[in-house]
Amino acid sequence: MALDPTALSAQTEPTARPGTPLGRFGVTMPLAAFGLNLALLTPVVVTLALKVEDVSPATKERDLGIILGIGAFLALVSNPLAGRLSDRTASRFGMRRPWLLGGSVLGALGLAVIALADGVLLIGVGWCVTQVAYNGALAALSATLPDQVRSERRGAVSGLVGITTLLSVVAGSLLAAVFGGDVGRFLVPAAIALVLVGVFVVVLRDRMASGTPARLDLRGFLGSFVFDPRRYPDFGWAWLTRFTFVFAAATGLTYLPYFLSDELGIPTDEVPGRVAVATVAAAGATVLASVLGGFLSDRIGRRKPFVVVAALVAMVGLIVVALSGSFTQLVIGEVILGVGTGCFYAVDLALITEVLPSADDVAKDLGVINMANALPQSLAPAIAPVFLAIGGYPLLFIAGAVVGIIGALLVTRIRSVA
């Protein structure tokens, strides 16, 4: 049963907003997202693969898949759980700020463990700590958008978040190319995240818990990871849309360094620089698509058409990457993929905030959505060896594109948002 849009809007609007000036929030919140994604995505894009290859070159694909899979599973659990706890945090510093700052500090410690590790096991431990910590911070950060900004203004802010997410990948690639050692490659992004999140924490007029939260029993704990799709069908379709898109993107993102070296024959010491070139080339088009998509979506008052078109464009880009026979062709595919990805994340986040089931559990519900970010990162490495054995990286990327196209069609099932 579709929800009444008016009732849904009332459900998802907090009764009293903390009142952070929109200008300050619109700048510092995306910057905090940039910092957290820089620290979390730089290892996923390039540095973790290089670190694993350095300590176990003979079994790099298997070891990287195991590490990413376990880490993604922990992200899957920690994000909604941290969201639920954030919604129930009654500290004098607010509901979100303790999780933002604490997660950033703990995440930096996890990256330090990876930087100093000399074996696969220790790399895995560090990555698990990193995933748990930064996903806890991201759960709290996502909740500040519906906490602070009314639904009709969220497209513009989420568009900026979409830009900074991509720019974090670009910046991470550049940092990996500039810093030759593990300490710089892992700890510089962590330090940047600490600074930017710290600035946001200072600026944020955080939402305060009303009353004393009820105890979190076993039923409440398990409820952190589930929702009723029969009661909230639009929320369910939004979850599936995000899941399929992230799954598609994860197939290309995770194994891009190995695709460059194994398929295109690029020497290993040149891979960080080539990854940086590809992401920088995509950045300009992605920034434009993200800003334009978020602005037009707010102006026209529609979300679904932008999400559908953006997802389809991104999948065309992934197919071009899969069929690349040269680095130039790969860069063209990455630019197309970046355009679609930038617009998708800009508008999809705004759409999601309009189908949340409750204003009282904003961070928990966004944590459930973020499971759609984490779960594909666990499944993709687990499934990848099958496709790699049959048809190599091209087949893996094309299979991911097919899943992404299915996701683009699923968003049309949402009824309460235009």
From TrEMBL:
Residues 23-418 form the Major facilitator superfamily (MFS) profile domain. Keywords: Membrane, Transmembrane, Transmembrane helix. It is found in: Cell membrane. It is a multi-pass membrane protein. The chain crosses the membrane at residues 31-52, 64-86, 98-117, 123-145, 157-180, 186-204, 239-260, 275-296, 308-332, 386-411. The keyword Transmembrane helix applies. It comes from the Bacteria. This is MFS transporter.
